[in-house]
Design goal:
single chain, Rossmann fold, 7 helices, six-stranded mixed β-sheet, 28% strand, alpha/beta, globular, 230 residues
Amino acid sequence: MGTPVVQVHNVSKRFSRDGFEVVALDHVDLDLEQGDFFALMGPSGSGKSTLLNLLAGIDRVTEGQVVVMGTELARLSESQLAVWRNAHIGYIFQTFNLVPVLTAFENVELPLLLTKLSKAERRKNVETALELVGLSDRMNHQPKQLSGGQEQRVAIARAIVTDPDLILADEPTGNLDARSGEEVLQILSTLNRELNKTIMLVTHDPHAASFATHEMHLEKGVLTRAAAVA
């Protein structure tokens, strides 16, 4: 077995709010291996999104260590983190975060503009990503011309277009109807099973969590359970 994709050791994250210290994560330990599909469950305010942001290098730990793909994130500067994140992390948001004036193709292409790929190589990668999410026929549409489910699929294509090592999905079905949510979960499952992508899914929905291979619970910043899903 190789080096884990994610190694979280004794990680705590504290915030100062209105003069009080808020503990978002309390001595969390977690390893993710290549090809794991983890569902992270817990009530609002339990620290789920905080953990995702630490794994993405968007936020920094108060204490402890986060190592992703062999890199200890605390050792990187903000500019180094931006380059590292673009190469290794695919982030899927609940609110899609698409640029409204750009087409689906242009939205998906955005992360590739920070690489050294040629225009032809970028086009090939974008077309492949949109095909994977079933939107080859919508690549010239702007977000306002798409349904919510289609917008989220564009966001997934954008997250995977750089072939990331780790996909982080923060309540990706939270703003979708049941049918669209099911389509998104099926895509994530396919990425995991067929392309061996390592995925961390934050959700409050037990049905969404059932697509994962492992399930964990956060309660008031404490990781309370990690179990394999049958």
